[in-house]
Structures are given as C-alpha cells and as structure tokens.
Input
Amino acid sequence: MVLSKLKINAFFITLFFIIVFTLSTNSSVAQQTNKNKKLKFLYDTARVLYRSSNYPEAKKYFTKILEIKKTIANDTTPKYFKVYNWLGLTYKKQGYLKKAAEYYKLALENTNNSYMQSLINNNIANVYVAIGDYNRALIYYQNGLRIFEKSTSDDKYKSIVINYYNQATILSRVNKHNQAIEKLLKSIEISKQNNLPIRGETYVSLGLMHTRQDSITKANLYYNKAMQFYKKRKDNTLKAFAYINYSGFLSRTKEYQKSESLYKKAFKILRTSFNEKHPYLILCFKDFSSLYYRMGNYKQALHYYQQALIRKVYSFNDTCIYTNPTNALPDLDLIDILKRKTKSFKKLAKHENKTKNLKAALNTLELTVGYIEKLRTGYLYENTKLELASKEHSTYLSIIDIAYTLYKTLGNPHYAHIAFKYAELSKYSVLRELQNEEMSRSIAGIPDSIWHTETKLKRQISSIRMQIVPETRLDNPDKSKLENYNKQLFASMQKLDNLIQHLETQYPNYYKQKYSNKTISIDSLQKSITKNDVAIEYTLTKDNLYSFVITKDTFLLDQQTADSSFSAKLDFYTKVLHRPHSSDYYKYRNAAYNVYSKLIHPFDSLLANKNLLIIPDDKLSLISFDALIDKPYSSEDIPDYRTESYLIRKHAISYAYSATLYANSLTKQPKKHLKFMGIAPSYEYSRDSLRHLPLGLKNVKQIAALTLGKSLTGKKATKSNFKKHYSQYDIFCFYAHGLEDTINPANSKLCLYNSMDTTNDNHLHAWEIFNLQLKAQLVVLVSCYSGAGKLYKGEGVMSIGRSFINAGSKSLIMSLWMASYEPSIKISRSFYWNLLKGMRKDKALQLAKLKYLDESISYTSPPRFWAGLNLIGNNTPLYHNFILKRIILILVSLSILIIIILRIRKFF
Output
C-alpha cells in the first residue's frame, strides 16, 4: 500500500516537473522569438538610418543589437560579423577611422565565410588609405585577394578585378609605378578570362602609369583603348574624365591641337551635366591651363588658372590674375591650382615685369603654404600629416628659391628673412605641431570640453570630405547631395575657425602654444645663442644648397649649386659611415673633404673657436659632420684615421631638427637636483639571440652610484619597470639593442629584458615612446640604429630617437647607424664624466670622442666606430659644480664624523 502511494506520488511529481519544464521552455521560446523579431526590427531600422546618412542614430541601433545578442547563447540573425561590419562602416563615415578599423577586425574574427572575410579585408584597407597608411592598406588588400581567390562565390572574379585595381592605385601613390602596371594588367587578364567587361578607367590608369614612366608608345596605346571604350558611351562623366587625361598626355607629346580639341569636348560634356563649381569642371580648366603653359603662353595659362580658382572657391569671382582667394576651404585641389599658378608667374617673370611677377609668385606661394598649414592642423592622424608634409615639401623650397632671387635682385634683407622662415617651416612641421599640442595640454585652466569639441569638429570635417569624394566620382552624382555636403563642410570649418578665434582671445597662452605655428625669427635665434655659438641651417632644393649662418651678431645667406657631383660625393660619404665594415681610406678622405668644402669651408672665417649647431636637411640628416675633414690629402700625409684633421677637433658640434625646436628646448632651465635612471638589460637568455652587453650593465651601475640615481639592470630592465618609474627621472641612459623598421618606423624598438620562459613583450616600440609624457633633460641611447629609420621629405628620419624628442625630452644622444659595442661604451662613460665636471653637453661629447680617438688602435679608429653618436637639441650644461659639491659634501660628512668620534672618545 505504502509502495503504491509512493509510485503515485512519484508519478505526480514527475508530471509536475514535465509541465513546469514545458511551460518554461515555451516561455523561453516565446522570449527568443520576441528577441529575434526585435533584432530584425533594429537591424532593418539601423540600415535605413545608415543609408539616409543618419550615422549617429544608426550607430545607436547597431550598438543596441550587440547588447541584446549578448543575452542570447547562439549567434542568431543578424550575425555578429554583419553588425560589426556595419558599425565599422558607420564609424568610418563619421571620421572615427581607428574605431572603424577595430570593428572591421572584430567582424573578421567572427566569420568563416571566405567571401565576406575578403570584403572585410578590403574595408580595413580602405580605412588605412583614408589614414594615409598605404603600406598597411596594401597588406589588407593583398590578404583580401588571397581569400577571394579561394572563395567559391559567383561574384569573386569581379571583386578580384576591383581588388587589383585598388592595389594599383595604392602602389601609384607610393611611386611604385611598375608594380601598379603589373596589377592593372592582371586585372585585365582576369576580366578577359572570365568574360567580364574591362573598365575604361583601367586603360586610363595604364596610360597615366606609362606616362609617368616615360613609356610614350605604351601610354598612347592604352589611352587609345580607353577612347575606343568610351566611344560606345554617351554623355558619360568618365568619358570626359578620360578625355581630360588623354589631353594632358597629348600636350606632353606636343600634339597641342589634338589636346585642345579633346579638352573642348570634355568641357562640353561636363558643362551640360554639372554646375559651374563642379570638381570635374575645375579639373578641366586646370588641365586646360597646363596645355597653354606647355605651349609657352603663360598669360593665357594664368587666365585659365584664375578661372579654375573662381570655380573652386564659391565666394571668389575676381578675374585679375594678381589676386587670390584668401578665405577659402583648404584642400589639395586648391593647393595644386595655386602652385601651378605660381609656376606660370615664375615663367612669365623671365619674359616681362620680373620683379612684379616674382613678387606675385611669392605671394601666391605664401598663401598656398598658409592653406597647407591649415589643412594639416585639420588632419587627425600622423600618417596623413606625414604624407602631406612629404607631398608639399617642394612648395616651401620653391618659396626659398624665389625669396633668394628677390634678395639678390633687390638687395633687400627682408627676403633673406623670408627664406629663413620657410626653411624653418619646411622642417619637422609634424613634429613641431605634435609638440605644440602636447605642451598646450599642460597649460592650466583649459576645459577638457574644448579639446573634445575640437576633435569632434575635425572628425566631422574628415567625415564630410570622405562622403564628398566618392559622390563626385559617380557617373551621375547627386547635385543636391553634393551641395548639402559642401554646406555642412563650410559650417563645420566655420565652427572650427570660431573655436580657434575664441581660444585666441580667452586662452591666449594656449592658443599661442598650439595654433600659432610660428617659427623663430633670426633676431630671436641670435638672442638664444651665446657669443661662442654659430648655427648653420641647411636647405637642399632640387638644384641648390642654401646655408643660413647665424652668430650672435651676424646673419649670412649663401647659395651654392647642388649638382650631381656633390650629390654623388655626399651619397658615398653617407654609405662609408653607415657600412658595417671600413672602406678605402683614400676614397673616404676625398669624399669627406669634398663634402666639407661645400658645407663648412665657405664660412670658415666666422667659425673660428665657435661651437657649431648644425640644422641639417633631407639627406644631410643621415651624416655626421664630426668626421668631415678640413684639408685635402697630400702625398706627404701618413694615412691614419686616428690623427686626421676632423671637424670635431676644431669645434664642439651639436645638432637640431630645426632652429625653432632648438629654441623650444631652451625654454626651461634644468632643476638643481637631477635624477638619473640607467637601463641595461641582460641578454643571456634572449629569445632573439641578442649579444649580451656586460659592459653596459657595469657602466649603468657606476653612473647611477656616482649620481645617486637608479639602475634597472639585468632582469630588472623590463618595459614594465621602465614605464613604472620613468616619470620620476630627468636623465635616462639606455644600453640596449635597437632594431629599426624602415617600412613602418613606428615599430622600431629597443629590446629590454625578456627571459626564455615568458611570452611578455619587452620591446619598447617607437609608438609607445611617442605617447609617453617625459620631463627629461637628456636621453642617451647607446643602441644600434636609434637615430636611423625611414627618411621623409620635410620630416627627416623617423627614428626611435625622434619619438623621445616628441615625448618631451629636451636633448638626446642617439646613433645614426649600428653602434659599435666597446667604442660606444667608452665614449658614453667619458661623456658622463665630462658632464659631471659642469661642461656643456656638446663640449662633453666632443672631448669624449677625442679621448677615444687618442686611445684607440688603428682597427677601431675609423669614423664608423665613433662618429655615429650625435647630440640633438639642448646643448647647455646639466650639472653646475657637481664635483665640487660632492667634495664639499664628503668633507662636511667627514668633519661631522670626526667631531662625533672625538666627542664619543672624550665622553668615555
């Protein structure tokens, strides 16, 4: 009986749980269904908002989808990768490029669909194109191509063709025209193999590439193919675009009548399709002007450039060629028109009204530089700024050429000062701007909201520009949409201008630091240097070498021809210094003297008993002036590197990126009590098989003990320990291996301690250093290639050392090439001892190098062993009466100790 009751109870209990489970399952199914419906509604709404250009609202909806999906176990529709990809697109449209890349990469991680992976790779590549990081963009295009090729999608070949075209576009931007041609031909080959139509713009691009390669026959062949393609199309914008490009080619080959005829056809098509201010009409006028320039009709060329400006700038309608729009929205197209107009003035000056037309050329280029500076400050990313600096470097150099000509023609020193101003502006503009920005943030009383507002406005401007470009390239661009975009762009630029004006009046110190972008004047530089100093600033243009020589009471501007002979000798001298083995003594000596004859000898009378501050330019940034030789070789001379008449024997030598940056480094005097930190890792268990540097560890410990500083040596010399303590110290010395990355300089690194049994990254990368906030007076990098890297026009060498300067160090010692182990240790040890004696940094380094030469053997005396360690920036003393103070401290301590001992003895 009891058993049967138990069975009945068990039955009802089981039934109860089945009912509860069923109800709960039905409930969860119902909830799941509701969530799926909600997700579909949100997804559809978000895409509609995106397509209607309401990106902030679209972003909110896509973000809400992610929040709901986190509460669901399975990856239901819409799939994660789709939402991430849409968020990437949305952030890109808003100008948040790095955020866009992050979401694209999340999309890539969340799908196994090869076709979608390849499309997402292309999206990431497009972001890096917008940032200006072309090398990284190319990597993602290539990765996308590999995935496309493995895909089974029906559309894959069409996408592969587009991918090759995109790769070619990137390669042409970095001047790899041969590789670009290969990609374009491959796209044609795949199109033919898969019965896809060959795009006319592919033929046009091939024509352009071959024109740049001076392959005239092949260029003509492809332009003719493009013309055949576009014959079948009626009133097509791309047709007009092809006409313009082919016309430009024909004008180069002096087929002026054909060229003019095609320009008129292009103009007719464009004028019937677009309003007077459309970008394609501007392009047509600009290239029409170039035709007349090539024909030697410079007045007519100037007339059409003026017409291009009228169509470019909405509020500008002045037809006088001597006037320019002074309040326009800056972009590369406007800058290009003004530069071309300048060239026409320079040519016209050779035939009539020389002074008037040269002044017009100078005024036009000065305005152009103003637009370049304004455009750069509106860019968010360093890569984009560097690309602009490199592209427009020649504009600054052209001003120097014109200003020097006017200086010699009129004898007016005002033009020599203008030449110096633009020599300064042409150097390290990005570094100067980044320093200004970092320094300005430290100024008290500036609300964070101002910085956020500025960043937001820049992103808006970037976003609108990214929407304008693809729209203008369409066959039938939406006129109302373009007009709306331009209104938005103008409004955002006005807001940014108003913000800057507000800062100028309300926060003058902040404005002066961040936005004024002023360079130091000759008078101010003369006040900054001592009577024992002479600064020589060099500028290399296409044909000339300009030297600005400044002492306390003298300013000299010198011009010399920079011919192929000088260039060859400079290149050889550079190679000799950078080679890991010694070169022929006589060839080195000849090159060193010839370079000296050009760079230093013309000013010898001003240099006697002076300290030299060298401000190099372009390729001159790669050499050490220390190892130049000041007398020609005589057959009576004994060939001995140890006794050569090097420039370093006559002068203490320091270097600066620019006179302005040098003056900035002098603004704050060092503290009375400087704290030293030395970093010397152990490489005994290095995963990279790096050579151990025991002398470096020993040196760091000795200097730290002498200065009562801190040493991070052996296993303590880790990245985390450095980052933990660096903000407390004023002087840093690294005895570490350095590795350069010439493709992506931001990845150049110092190798700190990393044992075999850890996966932690102890490479201190240039990009990490760049973002530190140092308060250092001096950083010494006794490491290979710390001053080496990729050479950018206008920005010099992108190196690890440059990152320390940007992070806030006032001065820096770095190696321009592979640092020799024992010589570098000996020189740096002597340098620190000289510093402690109270010497200037440049004098301390000079005597350290000379001491090394005096003590060296024949094998280790060539300049590659000792000349690579250069001082950049502030060259003033760090220690004043350090040794005397230590002696007094020791004597006082001994006196106190003796008194204590005597008293104790007397007591007992």
User: Anything to note?
Assistant: The longest strand covers residues 533-540.
